[in-house]
Automatic annotation (TrEMBL):
This is LLM class F420-dependent oxidoreductase. The keyword Oxidoreductase applies. It comes from the Bacteria. Keywords: Oxidoreductase. The lineage of its organism: Bacteria, Bacillati, Actinomycetota, Actinomycetes, Pseudonocardiales. InterPro entries: F420-G6PD/mer, F420_G6P_DH-rel, Luciferase-like_dom, Luciferase-like_sf. Residues 12-289 form the Luciferase-like domain.
Length: 322
């Protein structure tokens, strides 16, 4: 098992994201994961920087830690040729430490280019075509492609790493899990659902399972739950809602009646490592072996110290017991 740290790009400046990635490496995390958004989720979030610039800065500022997008939609806001080039460059700059996480996207980020928002079945078709294009371009040489939705014309990525970066495909159901098995190298999820990994394995997938683990550290449990509510209440709505709302104002309305108590039930909150391990165990028991820990608490440096002193050992022990 590998233990990662989720960089919360929607509430942190680009410079702070790089600083926290360096601190995560020093704390002993195996990888950092960062979303690829144009908009933040909520109006009280303050940032949403361009992920590929941030990844380059992290690659230049760290030596060991892995990097991953969690996740990039490679077919609306971007053309897959651009994603193929960006990922290849990031893999080179990081010395092979990069994993490309991809998914079918959210309206929140993809509607901004005015191409509409297709139904999920069409987005899955587009995701599969995008992955075929990315794989083609990573194979070297010039390529063209004409699919039902996407086209590539006489294109070549010149700067390629010795080995292509792994691709982790986000799945919320068996259809996307099948795409992950056929065209990806790993599965990505935000829920401790063993059925997703079962669908992935039954479709022929053999790679690791990535998942985001919701935690909120603070010296006081109430403060942790209040911070989780401020930062992550959008996450309680589930993927079907998260994928469809277009702007932060809509997420504000959809979460108007969510309370800190609701977040306390979903997150490991407060200073007690047992509360955090209880949440981590749900994902480990579901079979996920690449766990990106979210800290929705108010003090990132306090969380890093907590991880080093009280959480890292028990989480690693949990991993060894699987």
């Amino acid at each position: 098992m590998q233990v990662g740290y989720k960089l919360f790009a929607e509430d942190l400046s680009p410079a702070e994201l790089v600083r926290q990635a360096v601190r995560a490496e020093r704390a002993g995390f195996d990888f950092v994961e960062i979303s690829d958004h144009f908009h933040p989720w909520l109006e009280n979030h303050r940032h949403s920087s361009f992920v590929w610039t941030v990844l380059g800065a992290i690659a230049a500022s760290t030596e060991r830690i892995g990097l991953a997008t969690g996740v990039t939609c490679p077919f609306l806001r971007y053309h897959p040729a651009i994603v193929a080039q960006a990922a290849a460059t990031t893999a080179l700059l990081s010395g092979g430490r990069f994993t490309l996480g991809v998914g079918a996207g959210e309206r929140l980020n993809e509607h901004v280019v005015g191409k509409g928002w297709p139904p999920v079945s069409v987005r899955h078709e587009m995701l599969a075509e995008a992955l075929e294009i990315i794989r083609l371009l990573w194979s070297g040489g010039y390529h063209s492609y004409r699919g039902r939705h996407l086209t590539l014309e006489d294109a070549r990525v010149f700067d390629l790493p010795p080995e292509p970066p792994p691709i982790a495909v986000a799945a919320g159901g068996p259809a996307a899990a099948g795409i992950a098995a056929e065209l990806g190298d790993a599965l990505f999820s935000t829920e401790p659902d063993p059925g997703l990994l079962t669908a992935y394995r039954e479709a022929g997938g053999t790679g690791p399972g990535y998942a985001e683990v919701p935690l909120a550290w603070a010296a006081d449990e109430t403060a942790a739950a209040e911070s989780a509510h401020r930062l992550f209440r959008f996450g309680l709505m589930g993927w079907k809602v998260q994928a469809e709302l277009p702007n932060p104002v809509n997420f504000e309305a959809a979460t108007a009646f969510t309370t800190p108590s609701d977040l306390r039930e979903a997150f490991g909150c407060g200073p007690d490592p047992k509360a955090h391990l209880k949440v981590v165990e749900q994902f480990a028991e579901a079979g996920f072996d690449r766990l990106a820990l979210i800290n929705a608490g108010p003090d990132p440096d306090g969380f890093f110290a907590f991880f080093e002193d009280e959480l890292a050992g028990p989480v690693r022990e949990l991993a060894r017991g699987r």
